[in-house]
Amino acid sequence: MFRLFNTLLGVVKAKMMALWTKIRLWTSRSYWETKGVNTFRQFFSRLLNVKPRSQSDYYPVLRWLVSKRLAFALVIVLGLLSVFYILFFSPVSAMLSASSPSLPSFRYNALPLKFYSGNVQITAADGHVAYEGTVGGGVAQGQGVLYRADGSVVYSGAFENSKYNGSGSLFYQDGVLRYEGEFEDNLFNGQGSLYRQSGVLEYQGGFLRGLKSGAGTLYNSGGNAIFAGNFLSDRPLFSELLGKTTAEAASMYTGGTTVYNASGENSVSLDEIGVVYTANDGSNSLDAEWTIGEIVVEESSFPTTDALLTGINELTAYFGEPVYFGYTWPTLSEAVAIRRLSEAGSGGFPDIEMEMTAGFDDVYSVTSYDKNYELYIYVYQADGLLYTFYCDSSTSDFSFYSVSLSGEESSAQAADSASSAASQEGGEE
Fold this sequence. Notes:
alpha+beta
């Protein structure tokens, strides 16, 4: 009895497995695709393999006879291709599934897009709407909006050859405005406003190839204007401060300042832009008649029209051979810059000894500082200015630099001290 039951169970299982195999086969996409292709192929094979038997099986076309079966096959093929085009490529059908039904929609790589001009919607490979706006010859031309996969706006404005060209707005990932103004080939170029990710204005003015350039105004993290002047390669053109009175400098820079005085040496730190300048007139008071003779910039790169220079070899290629290189001792402004860089953990210099007492708010009387502190410098001369670059050794890149008016006593102070140091330390001229 038990053996009979197992036999019956085996027969049932075999029947069920066969049925299950058929169900899986019938529900398989690949099965129906293969079956469809085979059926299609067999149909055309039978259609085309039957030889016409009489003249009635042909269509006369000019001086030729065309098989009716062949003509029938061609009509079917053209019909299928037309349906395929309507379903997958035509803007008319694509509009049916588009989120913006008023616009014809194309996939980014659709062939018809290359021949279309006008307002469209373009979907990316993952299916999200990537662009809405005008196109011409397959590229974005005119006004449009570029979207991220999450639907947020990347850019809204003018396009030319699928690049940002003209007036537009660029946005951070979270939708906060990043830049508003003029573009050229995807870069900020012309007049514009740059914003921090917090939404606070950072800079307003001219741009060139993506960098701050020309007249502009710099703002701090609180949105307050701190510097108004010319910019070059994303940096204020600090050399413009040379020769100006302290009152004129105060009209350009309105951020926080710290004043240092040491036995006739007077330095003012423009705290929010990393600059220390030297101002002298031989008196003991700071007033509007004081003029700026040296500017120390707390930056390890030097801006030019084409690039930011960081290495001595790059500087020599740009300026020519230095007028001096060797060891020197710091001026008060240079000592202040070293101290600020050391406190910030940058610059590569050890902290400099400096004794000072506080007077009024942000005013210090420096009683002494280490005037034997050694600095290795490279001095270049160009366009009536002296450019001094400060290194911690003869083989390192510079950590900061200064600019002074060539030929004036106050401006030549660095070069004079350099010569004195060279005579005592064996430096080379």
